[in-house]
Amino acid sequence: MMRDVRLLTEPFVADQLVGPFSAANPGLGGICTFIGEVRGGGGVKALELTHYEPLTLTGMHEIADGAQSRFDLLGLLIAHRVGKFRPGEPIVCVSAAAHHRRAAIDAVDYCMDHLKSAAWFWKRELRSDGWHWIEPRSDDYANLERWR
Amino acid sequence: MTVRVLFLGPLSDIAPAAEMNVDGPLDWAGLLDLVSPECADQIRSERVKIACAGKVLLDKADLHAKGGDEVAVLPPVSGG
Fold first, then answer.
1. Structural domain contains residue B79
2. Partner-chain contact B10 A123, CB within 8 Å
3. The domain that contains B37 carries what CATH number?
4. Exposure class string for B50-78: b at 16+ Cβ within 10 A, else e
5. Is residue B80 domain-resident?
6. B59 at the A interface (CB within 8 A)?
7. How many domains does chain B have?
8. Strand A46-51 relative to strand A121-127: parallel, antiparallel, unpaired?
């Protein structure tokens, strides 16, 4: 299986990742892509994502391992950025290529649930009254449990 | 030799510093002694993990960091 797992420290354009990824998987029957961006509105001026470097990329590969063993995939792209972001900037891009749509869609869903609450990232938002850490929501854990 | 202790995410705000260098060796009780009772309570929480020398401990009470090791205290994550 073709695998591309990246931890990015600079802004990225998702199309520039997904285009080559799609081209690298000839014969695919379907490709599913999720792009997560910093939400606008709600008074959020900026967002910062920090991580623990010795574990981050290894953890992302473990998530890719899980998706690869669980779903019949041709290729999997996981790109996650760290650093400071403005609203509208992409944070994460997951793309899965497969012969059949269900595997691609489910693999992206699986990877996103794990990136949300089982990868070594911490998020905080800058609002008018300062920085606030984003706590994981109970929904995030419930989403993760679906795959156990 | 010192042990480098890192407090990640929101724990960096309630620990004495985001990064501390302490004399090794460092065990679980020694780690809790470095921080306030409030911070220690959070570190005891089931959702907080400890990594030592690049490996997440299955049981954080088993922490036995020696000089030169890096210990990371990892609160609940929020990526994606």
1. no
2. no
3. 3.10.20.30
4. bbbeeebeeebeebebeeebbbbbbbbbb
5. no
6. no
7. 1
8. antiparallel
* Structural domain containing residue A23: 2-145
Segment A70-89, tens digit of pLDDT: 999 999 999 999 999 999 99
Of B13, B56, B75, the CB nearest to A55: B56
Nearest to A122 among B9, B51, B54 (CB): B9
Count of structural domains within chain A: 1
DSSP B60: G
pTM value is 0.94
Instruction: Tell me, yes or no, whether B57 lies in a domain.
Output: yes
Task: Place A125 in a pLDDT band, splitting at 50, 70 and 90.
Answer: very high
ipTM reported for the complex, 2 dp: 0.93
User: What amino acid is encoded at A3 in this protein?
Assistant: R
Q: Which two tokens stand for residue A119?
A: 């990868």
- Tell me which chain B residues have a C-beta less than 8 angstroms from the C-beta of A38: none
Q: How far apart are CA B57 and CA B48, in angstroms?
A: 11
* DSSP codes joined into one string, B14-36: HSS-SEEEEESPEEHHHHHHTS-
Residue B39: count of CB within 10 angstroms of its CB: 18
Q: Hey, is the C-beta of A56 within 8 angstroms of any chain B C-beta?
A: no
